[in-house]
Specification:
Elements: H1 2-34, H2 36-44, H3 50-64, H4 67-79, H5 85-98, H6 100-109, H7 118-123, H8 125-135, H9 139-169, H10 172-179, H11 184-198, H12 201-213, H13 219-232, H14 234-242, H15 246-276, H16 283-290, H17 295-314, H18 318-328, H19 353-384, H20 390-415, H21 422-458, H22 464-490, H23 493-522, H24 528-553
Length: 559
């Protein structure tokens, strides 16, 4: 009998954990998709303000229901050099507060003892959401359906976990064994290990809530298990950090030290309370008196209290924490600071696709700036025959080729993600050609430098009239670049129309350049080989204009 009950309880617990994890993932992906625009705006505001960082981490995690996703994304930002370690630390602080929302939701669902409890009511949302997802043709409605389905399944899983705890509670041997585990450190380590295995502090906290409600463990035991879950939740960040750069490793270490510090502080406070009072005061006693006859609320409130107080204590010590991890994880990649790399995206950002899409756009804009800079260098070299910037030109050309290759690889991975809204998905389909267009601008600039090499080898140069026309052409390309980028950034049709007008003007101007140069050659002002180089320069620049207008025209897909 006992063995059958235990087997049933274990299998039910596993089923409940599985459904709960799937529900968390479903809620997270759909909430992230629904709030993608707000998330982009939110994380774009990351600044040196510590309180703002905490707020961003809290709201962002509450929005996507995943502190792990927020932390991994933060590691990606640090690894890409977008935010500092101090900013990353404060966002992680906030993520710890934001993750307590799940425990509060779960606690709310545990109320009700009649034939219809809140768990049953909330579980019904799974069916409602499924109907919306299956029978609606609107993507927004399907997303809402996914959120409701995940929310309902959360409580279906919780119900199964609670049921398994009731089966365990019916066994005196199990209750006696659990009651014998009173050592806070053992309970903290148990919570940490179990959370590390299932990689979800929300599941561990929910199991602890269910065990408390069924009387399987005491509130104090549940509190220590929950504290341990905070340490175990660092595993996801550590895995992400180990595979990334030095600052990413430091960020993961900040997460671990912050969570461990909170546990140590509360263990010390708990020990002081127990030895300094006659009736052995504990956190369980305190929260039991504040929220009587509601063990689920008691534990959920402690969870929130624990994380908020830890943040309040650690926030002024952020600078010291950053200095500590900087010494613990020393710089071993000094040369990497100037190494060719992607500056705005990192594979860790794939955990939060909407943010990754916004960062992809920033990387493309940076690539466009590099291409224009190299075009300017090429015009400067061929106009002055001064090759002082040739090495810098070659370095940037290598970087453009690197970005072309690596950014395409990143976009391919990002496109496979299912948490993208329709606009982001359409945008990503345009990026492949956009990246190629920008890389081609660099190639045509390289051609111009090669023409300069040929002129230098022959001891030739362009006439004053030709140089004036080249300078005017450069000005027109800059005007086109500004309008094309405005159209691309703002998805502005009026800016695209203005860019088209400028591009048509460049076509006419390059045609007049060719006619003028042919006239100069017929008058013997220019040599034929110099004329050929000039015509090639004109043609290459006109193609650069074509690629710029292609970048701007990509917004038509999004209209």
């Amino acid at each position: 009998m006992d063995s059958t009950t235990i087997a049933t309880a274990i299998l039910t617990l596993l089923a409940g954990i599985g459904i709960f994890l799937i529900a968390c993932q479903m809620m997270s992906s759909n909430l992230e998709s629904a709030s993608s625009a707000k998330l982009k705006s939110l994380f774009a505001k990351a600044s040196k303000s510590k309180l703002l960082g905490v707020g961003i981490g809290t709201v962002g995690t509450a929005a996507i229901q995943s502190s792990g996703a927020t932390t991994v994304m933060t590691i990606g930002f640090v690894n890409a050099g977008i935010i500092s370690l101090t900013q990353a630390a404060t966002i992680i602080y906030g993520a710890n507060i934001g993750t307590t929302v799940t425990a509060q939701i779960v606690a709310l669902g545990m109320f009700g003892s009649g034939s219809v409890s809140t768990t049953v009511i909330f579980s019904a949302f799974a069916g409602l959401g499924a109907f919306l997802s299956l029978f609606s043709k609107k993507k927004a409605t399907k997303t809402i359906g996914g959120i409701l389905t995940g929310f309902g399944m959360l409580f279906v899983g919780l119900s199964l976990m609670s049921g398994s705890m009731e089966n365990f509670a019916a066994l005196e041997s199990v209750k006696t064994f659990l009651a014998s585990i009173g050592n806070p450190i053992v309970l903290v380590l148990t919570g940490a290990v179990l959370t590390a295995i299932i990689q979800s502090s929300s599941v561990m906290t929910s199991i602890a809530l269910a065990m408390c409600v069924t009387g399987l463990i005491s509130l104090d035991q549940g509190i220590f298990l929950t504290m341990g879950s905070n340490i175990g939740s660092c595993v996801v960040a550590i895995i992400a950090g180990v595979t990334s750069g030095t600052n990413a490793k430091r960020t993961a270490m900040i997460h671990l030290l912050f969570n461990c510090s909170g546990v140590v502080i509360f263990l010390l406070i708990g020990w002081i309370m127990s030895v300094s009072s006659a009736d052995a005061l504990t956190f369980g006693n305190l929260f039991n008196s504040m929220f009587p006859n509601a063990p689920q609320t008691q534990l959920a409130m402690f969870h929130t209290f624990f994380n908020v107080i830890t943040v309040i204590i650690m926030l002024p010590l952020t600078g010291a924490l950053v200095n500590l991890v900087s010494r613990m994880v020393p710089d071993r990649e000094v040369a990497q600071a100037n190494a060719i790399r992607l500056h705005h995206v990192d594979d860790n950002m794939l955990k939060t696709p909407p943010i990754a899409v916004a960062q992809t756009k920033k990387e493309i804009l940076r690539m466009a700036d590099l291409a224009l800079d190299n075009f300017d260098r090429s015009i400067g070299i061929i106009s002055t025959m001064d090759f002082a910037e040739r090495e810098q030109f070659d370095t940037i050309e290598k970087e453009l080729n690197f970005i072309n290759r690596k950014l395409v690889e990143f976009v391919v991975k990002l496109t496979d993600r299912k948490m993208l809204n329709e606009h982001d998905h359409l945008y990503l389909t345009t990026t492949f050609r956009t990246i190629r267009d920008i890389e081609r601008i660099g190639d045509y600039a390289e051609n111009i430098v090669e023409y300069a090499d040929a002129l230098k080898g022959a001891g030739d140069c362009f006439s004053a009239d030709a140089l004036n026309e080249i300078e005017r052409l450069k000005v027109l390309v800059h005007e086109l670049f500004d309008k094309a980028m405005t159209a691309y950034i703002e998805e502005s049709v009026p800016a695209l129309e203005e860019a088209n007008i400028i591009e048509e003007g460049i076509d006419r101007f390059t045609k007049s350049m060719e006619d003028n140069h042919i006239e100069r050659m017929s008058q013997g002002i220019c040599k034929s080989n110099v004329g050929a180089m000039y015509l090639e320069l004109s043609s290459n620049t006109e193609r650069i204009a074509d690629h710029l207008i292609n970048v701007a025209k990509s917004i038509r897909t999004l209209q």
